[in-house]
Specification:
This protein has 439 residues and is mainly beta. It contains six helices and 28 strands. One of its GO terms (molecular function) is metal ion binding.
C-alpha cells in the first residue's frame, strides 16, 4: 500500500543478476525444471513463442528473462527498462517485445542480450501488448492511448478516446483492434482509421481483453467477472470467477478456453461456449499477474506475486511437476479481530511487515515509522518519490490515505486507494505501529 523509495539500484541489480546466474548455471532435473525461478520480484508478464520452445517473462524487478521450456533453464537475462516490465508478446521467429513502467517498448532478437530497438512509445506505463497475424503489434498504456506498430517498431496508428488507463488491447480477426479501459469502456476500432470506434460500456473497470478466432470478445473486470461481447459490440453474458478484481487473462490458441487470474491467486479455466468454469488452478494464494497458454493449448504458464512462473495442465488444472504448495500461513492471523489488520488486508498482497518478508510489488513496511520516504534498500522507487522530503509518521500515513496516493505523492506507482473513515485510518496507523516495530 505505502510505496516509499529506492536504495542503490546497482546493489539491487547485482543481487538480481546473481539470482539469474544461479538459475542459468544450475542443472535442472525433471522436477525442478517445471517451475521457472530467477526473478527478484513479482512476475508481471509471460509470453510463449509460437514454436513452443521458448518463453519470455517480465518482472517488477525491471528485467526480462528468456527461458528454454524443455528444461526450465534461463538462457538470458534482458535489461533495458527503467521500471517494472509489465507486458511481453511473442513476435515470431524467436523475437519478443517487452513494455514497461517507463513507457518504452523494447524489441528483442532471438539471441543475445541487446534489444534491436527501444521505442519511446507512451507517456505513461504500458500495461499490455498484443501481436497481429501480419507481424504488427499493439500497445495499451496509462496515458489513455493505444498504438499500432509495424514489425520494425514504426508507429502506424494512435488510438485515442479512453478517459484514463488503457489496460488491455487485442487484434480482431478482421484486422481491427479492441481496447479495454479503466473507464469501463470497451472500444472496437475498425481497420480503417477513418472510421470511429464502437464504444461499449460495461458495469466495471476493465483490466484485460482477448478476442477469439470467431470474433467474440472476452474482458476481465474489476468486479471479478468475465464479460462476453460479440464482434459487433453486443453484450452477451458474464461469468463470475471470483470476488476480487481479475488482473490476468489469456485465451487458448483454438479460442475455446479462457484463463483468468485474480488478486488473491485464484485462476479459473472457463469454457467459452458454455461460460462455465471447467478447472481451477490452486496456487500459493498470492496475486496472479500474468497468464499464457502454450501454442498447443496443453499448458498454462502463470506468473505471480511470489516471483515464480508455474506450469499447469490446461485441461485438468493440475500442477505439472512437484505439487504446488498451498497458501502459506496468514501473516495477519496473529492480529485476528483487530480493525486495523482488516483495513490492512487489502495491502498485504504488495507489502510485507516483518524483517524477513522482503519487498514485493511495494517495499516492505518493516520499520516504516521514522523512515524517510524512498529509502528501503533494493526497491526500485519512482524518481518523483526519490526527490521528495518526507518522513513516515502516524500523521503522514493517515494523510496519505485520507487524500489518496495520487494527491499526496504525485508520481507514485502505488494504486489509488483511500480510507475515508477517520476511525479506520487511525486503526490502520495503530496496527502498523505495532506490526512493523523493529524487533
Amino acid at each position: 500500500m505505502i510505496r516509499p523509495d529506492h536504495a542503490p539500484r546497482r546493489a539491487a541489480r547485482a543481487m538480481l543478476g546473481l539470482v539469474a546466474l544461479i538459475s542459468i548455471w544450475t542443472p535442472a532435473d525433471s522436477s525442478s525444471a517445471q517451475e521457472l525461478r530467477g526473478h527478484g520480484g513479482p512476475v508481471r508478464a509471460v509470453a510463449v513463442d509460437p514454436g513452443g520452445e521458448v518463453a519470455l517473462t517480465g518482472s517488477f524487478d525491471t528485467s526480462a528473462i528468456r527461458w528454454r521450456l524443455a528444461d526450465g533453464v534461463a538462457e538470458a537475462v534482458l535489461r533495458t527498462h527503467e521500471g517494472s516490465v509489465n507486458a511481453a508478446v511473442a513476435l515470431g521467429e524467436g523475437r519478443f517485445a517487452t513494455a514497461g513502467e517507463d513507457g518504452r517498448i523494447a524489441i528483442w532478437p532471438a539471441t543475445g542480450r541487446t534489444p534491436q530497438r527501444v521505442i519511446a512509445a507512451h507517456e505513461a506505463p504500458v500495461a499490455a501488448l498484443a501481436a497481429g497475424s501480419d507481424g504488427t503489434f499493439a500497445s495499451a498504456a496509462w496515458d489513455g492511448t493505444a498504438a499500432l506498430w509495424s514489425a520494425q517498431g514504426e508507429e502506424l496508428r494512435r488510438l485515442r478516446g479512453h478517459q484514463g488507463n488503457v489496460n488491455g488491447v487485442a487484434f480482431t480477426p478482421s484486422g481491427g483492434l479492441v481496447t479495454a479501459g479503466y473507464d469501463a469502456t470497451l472500444r472496437l476500432w475498425p481497420p480503417d482509421p477513418a472510421q470511429p470506434p464502437r464504444v461499449v460500456t460495461l458495469p466495471t473497470p476493465l483490466n484485460g481483453v482477448v478476442v477469439a478466432p470467431d470474433g467474440e470478445i472476452v474482458v476481465a473486470g474489476a468486479d471479478g467477472k468475465l464479460h462476453f461481447v460479440s464482434a459487433a459490440g453486443a453484450v452477451l453474458a458474464e461469468c463470475e470467477v471470483g470476488q476480487t478484481p481479475l488482473i490476468a487473462l489469456a485465451l487458448s490458441p483454438d479460442g475455446t478456453r479462457v484463463a483468468a487470474g485474480g488478486i488473491r491467486g485464484n485462476v479459473a479455466i472457463v469454457e467459452r461456449r458454455t461460460r462455465r468454469t471447467i478447472a481451477t488452478l490452486v496456487g500459493p494464494g498470492l496475486p496472479v499477474w500474468s497468464l499464457a497458454f502454450s501454442p498447443d493449448g496443453a499448458e498454462i504458464l502463470s506468473g505471480g506475486g511470489d516471483r515464480v512462473v508455474r506450469r499447469w495442465n490446461a485441461r485438468t488444472g493440475e500442477h505439472i511437476g512437484a505439487v504446488v504448495p498451498q497458501a502459506g500461513e496468514d501473516p495477519l492471523a496473529a492480529f485476528s479481530g483487530e480493525r486495523g489488520a482488516e483495513v490492512f488486508r487489502a495491502c498485504a498482497a504488495c507489502h510485507t511487515l516483518t524483517p524477513d518478508g522482503g519487498n514485493r510489488a511495494g517495499p516492505t513496511l518493516y520499520g516504516i515509522f521514522g523512515r524517510r520516504i524512498a529509502s528501503v534498500p533494493g526497491y526500485d522507487y519512482s524518481p518523483a518519490l526519490r526527490a521528495m522530503d518526507l518522513v513516515w509518521t502516524g500523521e503522514t500515513i493517515a494523510r496519505l490515505f485520507e487524500v489518496g496516493p495520487n494527491a499526496y505523492l504525485p508520481g507514485t506507482k502505488m494504486p489509488e486507494q483511500r480510507v475515508t473513515n477517520e476511525a479506520d485510518r487511525q486503526a490502520l496507523v495503530d496496527f502498523l505501529k505495532k506490526a512493523t516495530a523493529p524487533r
